[in-house]
Design brief:
Layout (H helix, E strand, L loop, with lengths): L1 E10 L2 E6 L6 E6 L6 H13 L7 H4 L11 E8 L2 E8 L5 E8 L3 E4 H15 L2 H7 E2 L14 H10 L11 H13 L8 H115 L1 H75 L7 H24 L1 E4 L7 E4 L2 E4 L3 E4 L4 E4 L2 E4 L12 H16 L4 H29 L4 H14 L10 H33 L2 H33 L2 H32 L1 H38 L3 H63 L3 E5 L5 E6 L2 E4 L5 H20 L11 E4 L7 H15 L3 E6 L12 E4 H6 L4
Parallel strand pairs: 3-19, 3-20, 8-18, 18-19
Antiparallel strand pairs: 1-2, 1-4, 4-5, 5-6, 6-7, 9-12, 10-11, 10-13, 13-14, 15-16, 16-17
């Protein structure tokens, strides 16, 4: 298939696009910005070839331009096989189809017949799978291609196979085997209905047999359990009377032991109360002694604190005097430090002004000298402008002058002469110049003499015709040299060389002088610094001091400030201990302690007097004696009660009673549970009647199902073995005829990926991996750039293989690439360009792109800007 022209009207975003007179081979680049309709061109081409004009699907409706009630229209002129035709289709509004065939025989059709004829042409001469593969859309860049699924590729591979094996596999045997295989298995190897039913019947029979065996085993278990539970119930009923009598006896013993325990607990509470009363009486006696001791202790503490009061007051007065004196000295030292800081600031400002003024004067002098040097340098450079005259130039002109002098002398010695005579002042004309008669004229080839109305021209003999005139040649060489130097003669050349040499030496000296004067700085920085200083000193009054005196004044001010600061530090350090006010704090603490001691003595005395008023010491002693006797009496009664409890052992009596209760409850539970279990087991036993007969029937059904499955399995395994054998041989044959595809792909890929690149192919001729040397990478793990390069290379390989297949007169299908190579680096882009050029030598390659620069290296390409295609016909 070759595309000659394509016209698109009102198709999505394209209002009008015309592409005419496309070359039959070569790379055609259609470029434009995004959303300008490049991909729509590919959609329109597919629509005009395969979509009926009467179609009204959602896809067809999406072609109508937004906001306009017009019919999408596409017209294509192409050659498919031996047929050249133009197909025009309108969709939706005013739908129509027109087909005009111009070769091999003219024919015109419209409507349904036109589409039927187009379908016949395409079916006979165009492999639709191949076209779909070679029309490479943006979303197809990462996908692998199953080349076996393309009949044109299979046919092409059959044609180049070196062993005669064909890739065609639809033989009668294969078809019969596949049909029989599909009776038992799906294409993926899963069992089909017949095999699945046989397996299902066997599984059901196995399940029924298992269920029957389980039911029979359950019946046997229920009968055995019924017997065991009946025996357990009888034993519990026999033990029940003795258990009830034992429980009543132990309950009475537990009740008596509990009463003894409660009595003992009451006696222990009375003993605790008596003991607490004794403790209170003893505590009252102890408290009376503590109150007396507290009064004595408070008097002693008060006397101790009062003794140090006078000394603390003297220390506080000394501390106050020191704080006042040192504080005054500190203020004086701080003021002196402030004065010295102000003096230092003033001295630094004066030093800065004096230094800046001196620097400004220096810069002015320096810049004035630099500018004078710059003017002299400019003058010297102007004098040396133009081409410099070197010693080699002088030598060349000297040599040319010497050669001319020598040529003239040689010619003068060997040339013929013509001498004139006549009246004085008379002249003749030689080569257009007046020559006096007394002169001698050398005759050279072509010398022309004019005497009155007579013209004579000298012609030398044959001996002089072998070469040109050496004098003329030497004059030409000298003239060329002087013209190149734009000088008149040798002396002028020598003078120009000497002048240039002196000027160069002067320029070098001036440049060295300027470098020395700048002292490593640049003129712009110095000029900027001078401008800054002029601005800073514009409103300042410059002190009448030199920089040394100003610096000395700064040093003196800094020394004075340091001394003042040191004095402040010394006074402050001397004041630091007194700021803590230790004497005042000690006096305050002592006063507080004296006040506390006085208050403590007052309270202790009051407490002692109040206690003595309530009860005297004799009364407290009598109370202790009475409480002791009461406590001893209750303790004796408590010991007797504890002995009674020990004899009864309430805890053991309670435990024995609980054990009897538990046994009685367990016997009742066993009897009740046995009744319920026996009732349930009777139901199970009644329900399981006939379990033995069911088990026999299930065993028979299982044997029949197993026999049927074995029969189906034998047939299925036989056809599976036959199919696997055929597939193995087919794979071996496919591997042989797949070699040309792999070789073609590798040949195209070597310029891009290197000479040691290899590819792994599936049995469907899909690229599965790429190997470069010892590194192998699966297709899915390749980079985006490598994937898109491989997608294009695979389609180029398919295109070149199918281009070799011309048995049915097919013209190779164009390769259409929609906006590819976006992830390809510049070096690989250059290599891919060579492949585009190579494929364009034999077929059409149409590239739709928004970056035409990617294809600048493609030779013989034709470029169309999509905006120009929209504006009118392009040819």
């Amino acid at each position: 298939m070759r595309i000659h022209s394509l016209t698109i009207d009102n198709f999505r975003g394209i209002e009008r696009l015309t592409l005419e007179n496309l070359p039959e081979t070569g790379v055609i680049v259609i470029h434009g910005d995004n959303e300008q309709g490049k991909s729509t061109i590919l959609d329109a081409l597919h629509a005009v070839l395969y979509e009926k004009h009467s179609g009204k699907s959602r896809a067809v409706k999406s072609w109508r331009p937004v906001g306009r009630d017009v019919a999408p229209r596409v017209s294509l002129t192409a050659t498919v096989g031996p047929v050249t035709f133009t197909i025009t289709k309108n969709w939706l509004k005013a739908a129509k189809a027109e087909l005009h065939i111009t070769a091999p025989q003219r024919e015109s059709l419209a409507g349904g017949p036109a589409e039927e004829k187009l379908e016949e042409i395409l079916s006979r001469h165009l492999d639709r799978d191949l076209a779909r593969t070679l029309f490479l859309r943006q979303g197809d860049l990462g996908a692998a291609i199953s080349a076996v699924g393309i009949s044109s590729v299979t046919r092409a591979l059959d044609g180049v196979s070196d062993d005669g094996d064909s890739g065609t596999e639809d033989t009668a045997l294969s078809t019969a085997v596949e049909k029989e295989y599909e009776r038992y298995f799906t294409p993926k190897g899963a069992p089909t209905r017949e095999l699945k039913e046989a397996r299902t019947v066997l599984e059901q029979a196995q399940a029924e047999h298992q269920a029957a065996a389980t039911a029979h085993a359950d019946l046997t278990g229920h009968v055995d359990r019924h017997d065991r539970i009946s025996a357990r119930r009888a034993a519990a009923e026999a033990d029940l009377p003795s258990a009830e009598a034992e429980e009543r006896e132990l309950a009475e013993k537990a009740r008596l032991a509990e009463q003894a325990q409660e009595k003992a607990a009451g006696m222990r509470r009375e003993l605790q109360l008596a003991t607490e009363a004794l403790h209170r009486a003893e505590a009252a006696v102890t408290r009376r002694a503590e109150l007396s001791d507290a009064v004595t202790e408070a008097e002693s503490v008060l006397a101790t604190h009062t003794a140090g009061l006078a000394e603390a007051e003297e220390r506080r007065e000394l501390e106050t005097r020191q704080l006042a004196e040192l504080g005054e000295r500190l203020e004086q030292a701080q003021q002196a430090e402030k004065d010295s800081l102000e003096r230092l600031r003033s001295a630094r400002r004066v030093h800065r002004l004096v230094t800046d003024a001196a620097r400004r004067t220096t810069l002015r002098t320096q810049l004035t000298a630099v500018r004078e040097l710059n003017e002299r340098i400019t003058q010297v450079r102007a004098a040396t402008a133009g081409r410099p005259v070197s010693d080699a130039d002088v030598r060349a002109v000297e040599d040319a002058t010497n050669d001319l002098t020598l040529a003239r002398r040689l010619r003068a010695q060997a040339a013929a002469r013509l001498e004139f005579s006549g009246p004085a002042g008379a002249t003749v004309t030689v080569d257009g110049e007046a020559v006096p008669l007394d002169a001698t004229v050398e005759l050279t080839e072509g010398t022309e003499l004019v005497i009155g109305e007579i013209t004579a021209r000298y012609r030398a003999g044959h001996t002089d015709s072998s070469g040109g005139d050496p004098v003329v040649a030497a004059e030409g060489v000298l003239r060329d040299l002087l013209d190149g130097l734009d000088l008149s003669d040798l002396d002028a050349v020598r003078a120009a060389r000497d002048n240039h040499r002196r000027a160069s030496e002067d320029l070098a000296g001036l440049l060295r002088e300027r470098t020395t004067l700048l002292a490593g700085e640049d003129e712009e920085s110095l000029d900027a610094e001078l401008t800054r200083l002029d601005s800073a000193l514009a409103d300042e009054e410059i002190p009448d001091l030199d920089a040394v005196a100003a610096a000395r004044a700064v040093e003196e001010a800094e020394e004075a400030r340091e001394q003042a600061a040191a004095e402040v530090g010394r006074v402050d350090r001397a004041l630091t201990p007194w700021r803590e006010r230790r004497a005042e704090n000690t006096l305050t603490a002592l006063s507080v302690r004296i006040e506390a001691a006085e208050e403590r003595l007052r309270q202790a005395t009051a407490a002692r007097d109040a206690a003595a008023a309530d009860a005297d010491d004799a009364t407290l002693a009598q109370a202790v004696e009475s409480a002791t006797a009461a406590r001893d009496a209750v303790a004796e009664q408590c010991r007797a009660a504890d002995a009674e409890v020990a004899a009864a052992d309430p805890e053991l009596a309670a435990d024995l009673h609980r054990g009897a209760e538990t046994r009685l409850t367990s016997l009742h539970d066993t009897i009740n549970q046995s009744k319920q279990d026996l009732a349930e087991l009777k139901g199970y036993i009644h329900q399981a009647q006939g379990a033995a007969e069911r088990l026999d029937k299930a065993a028979s059904a299982l044997a029949a199902a197993q026999h049927r499955l074995d029969s189906v399995n034998r047939r299925a395994e036989a056809v599976q073995l036959l199919r696997d054998t055929l597939h193995r041989h087919r794979a071996e044959a496919r591997a042989r005829y797949a070699r040309p595809f792999a070789e073609q792909l590798t040949r195209l890929a070597r310029p891009v990926f290197g000479p040691d690149v290899e590819f792994g192919l599936s049995d469907q001729l899909e690229v599965t991996r790429r190997s470069i040397g010892t590194d192998t990478v699966p297709l899915a793990d390749l980079s985006g750039g490598a994937k898109e390069q491989l997608a294009i290379l695979t389609r180029f390989a398919i295109a070149q293989l199918t281009a070799l297949d011309t048995g049915d007169g097919q013209v190779p299908v164009p390769v259409i690439v929609d906006d590819a190579l976006g992830s390809t680096d510049p070096s690989r882009l250059q290599l891919m360009a060579t492949l585009f050029s190579r494929l364009g030598d034999t077929g059409q390659v149409i590239v739709l792109t928004c970056v035409p620069q990617r294809y600048e290296r493609v030779g013989g390409r034709t470029e169309y800007a999509i905006e120009e295609l929209k504006s009118g016909p392009v040819g």
